[in-house]
Amino acid sequence: MLRIFLALLLLLGLQRTDASHWSYPDRDLDEVFPSWGGICDTGTLQSPIDLSITKSLKGVFDELKLDNFEDKQSGVTVVNNGHSIQLANFNNEMEVEGGPLRDEYVVEQVHLHWWSEHTINNVRYPLEAHIVSRNKRYANVTMASNFKDGLTVIAVLYHVSNERNEAIDQIVDYLDDVKDFDKINEPVRMKNPFVVRQLFPKLNGYMTYSGSLTTPSCAEAVTWIVLSETFPVTLEQVDNFKQIQNEEKITLKNNYRDLQKANNRPVIVVLPLDKSVSDAASPLQLSMGTLFFMLIAAKLL
Ligand SMILES: *[C@@H]1O[C@H](CO)[C@@H](O)[C@H](O)[C@H]1NC(C)=O
Ligand SMILES: [Zn+2]
């Protein structure tokens, strides 16, 4: 009896202290979003948030520069970390600088959320990629997450299309190898080179704000750069990610965090310098168009 009691105590203790055991709710069952603890619950600069053109401030910055994103990266690894599918181990260093950033950042990893974490004008997208970069001032991501300027994440949103996304397909090809719970944290090397630039469309403006990691520790260390132009993906492609298992052997149907309070944070919208027409959809430009139309209509009436 005492032994069982002690075992139970130990189990409870482990659950309390092991911060790696956090999860997403099953949205099909209307489960409430779990409390992740710490700054995730108490922070005031949390992410994701809804991005709205009518609540944004216009900004003009130096050009946002993405260096070596076109490089063919060989030996890139794909891993199921129990919460997402992540790419890492880039052999050619990629850098992000300019735009709202004061320093140079180096790309550490890329991972995906199905469905999107950020919404634009309250519209959710089927998939969101996060390209996570570390300020070179800090030795590693753990160190960087202690500082407000420690990290920058470029977020790419994908819209539903009949057109398969080739870059996403290159990741889907490895899902069977990593999806089962007993493969968690076992990286698989990609056989073909991977070009990170192929994950997103033409740089056509972005929205930027100060926020947090959207997974525990939820560190408030992130300059978010959400590209305003979205890229196509099929729902069938996204469904492949919903087969991923977490540590509890439960399929990860969705891995997006609930929207967080904006707390009157400035969201800065940076419009593209080059206004040439493009095939991809830009919710930002659409809403700007709608806004202007409404303003004109309001003047006329
Ligand atoms: C990160 O860098 C700090 C300072 O150099 C070091 O103490 C720490 O062990 C590093 N952490 C990881 C996870 O590499
Ligand atoms: Zn993420």
Automatic annotation (TrEMBL):
Gene name, per UniProt, is LOC105231853
- Known catalysed reaction(s)? hydrogencarbonate + H(+) = CO2 + H2O
What's the protein here called?
Carbonic anhydrase
Enzyme class (EC, first level):
lyase
> Organism's domain of life?
Eukaryota
UniProt keywords (A-Z) are: Lyase, Metal-binding, Signal, Zinc
| Pfam families tied to this protein | Carb_anhydrase (PF00194)
Taxonomic source organism = Bactrocera dorsalis
What is the phylogenetic placement of the source species in the record? Eukaryota, Metazoa, Ecdysozoa, Arthropoda, Hexapoda
Q: Function, please? A: Reversible hydration of carbon dioxide.
Q: Enumerate the PANTHER family for this protein.
A: CARBONIC ANHYDRASE
